[in-house]
Amino acid sequence: MKVKNALKVTVVCSQLLLAASAFAAETKSADIFYYNLTDSFIANLDRILTQKGSEQGVDFKKYNALDDAFAQSETIDIALADKENKPLLINLVDSTYANELLTSLPKDSDRQIIFFNRDISDSALASYDNAWFVGASPRESGRYQADILVSYLKAHPDYDKNKNGVLDLVMLKGEETHLDAVLRTQEVLKVLNEQGIKYKVVFSANANWQFQKGFDFMDQAVSSLTFNNIEAVVCNNDAMAMGAITDLNQYGYNLDDANKYIPVLGIDAIPEARQAVKEGRMLGTVCNDATKLSEVLVTMVKLGSKDPAEISKAIGLPVENKRISIPYHQICNAQ
C-alpha cells in the first residue's frame, strides 16, 4: 500500500510539474501600437521590449503609426475586430483618442488594453474594466531635471555671463498640445521659482521631440541671442537635447574648453545622451527606465490578470487607480 501511495504521489507531482512547465513555456501574443518608431526613446524601448518578450514567451506584432493619429486609430479598429482577443499595448499618437476607443468597446469585452508611455485621462481609464496605464510621471521628470540644473547653478554662482541678474534660459519642448511636454516644462519652471532662481525664457520652441528640430531651433537661438545670452538649455527629451548639443559642438561649445560651455539637459537617458553626459558635453538627463517599463508590460501580458493586487505583486510596483508608475532617476555630470 505504501508503495502504491508513493507512486500516486509521484505521478501527481509529475503532472503538476508538467503543467507548470507548460504554463511557463506557453507563448502569448499581443499587438503593440507605437506612435512613431523613429523616436529615439521608442526605438530603444522596442528593442528592449522585443528582447524581454522573447525571453518570457510573449510575441509582439508591431504597428508603427509614424505620428499619424488617423492611421493609428484605423489600425487599432482592425485589431479590435480580431476574434483572437489578443491584448493591445498602445502608445498613442493622440492621447485624447483613448476615451473614444474604450467607450466604443462592447460591454461584454474583457480584452486587456494597456496604454503606455503617453498618458491618458483618469476618466478614460475608468470607462473600461481591463484598461491600464504604464508610464512615468511627466511632472517627476521635470522636477528631477530642474534639480540637476539647480545643483549646477549653485555650484557655479558665476553662471550669469551677461550680468543681467537672471538665468537666460532656452526651452526646447515637445508638441504644443502634448500633456507630457506641458507638464515637464511647467515643473522645471516651478522648481526654479521654488529655489529662488530668477530666470527669463529668452527662447522657446516646440521641437516636437525631434533631433533635427532641436538642432535647427538651437541654431536659431544662437543666431538671434549670441552665446553670451544663453546660460542653460532645457529640453523635454534627449533627442532634442542631442540636436542642441550637436549644434553647440559645431561652434566649439561643450567640448574641451571650460569657458565655452552651456549646460544642456534632457529626459529619457537614451544611449547617445548617456554617452554625452559621460563625455561632459551634456549636463544631465533623467532616466525614463525603458527596461523596467518593458518588464512590466511583458509581465502584465503574460499574467493576464485584472486584479490590481495580483499585478502589483507580479511587477513589484504599486497599482493605483489602474496606473503603474515607473520611477525616474537622474544621470548627471558633476561639472
Structure write-up:
This protein has 335 residues and is α/β, with parallel strands linked by helices. The chain has 2 domains: 26-136 and 289-327, 3-Layer(aba) Sandwich (Rossmann fold), CATH 3.40.50; 139-287, 3-Layer(aba) Sandwich (Rossmann fold), CATH 3.40.50. Helix content is 47%, strand content 18%. It has 12 helices and 12 strands. A 6-stranded parallel β-sheet has the order 2-1-3-4-5-11, with helices on both faces. A 6-stranded mixed β-sheet has the order 7-6-8-9-10-12, with helices on both faces. Strand 8 (232-235), helix 9 and strand 9 (264-268) form a beta-alpha-beta unit. Helix 2 (40-56) crosses helix 11 (290-303), helix 6 packs parallel to helix 7 (179-194) and helix 8 packs across helix 9 (238-250). The chain is elongated, with a radius of gyration of 24 Å.
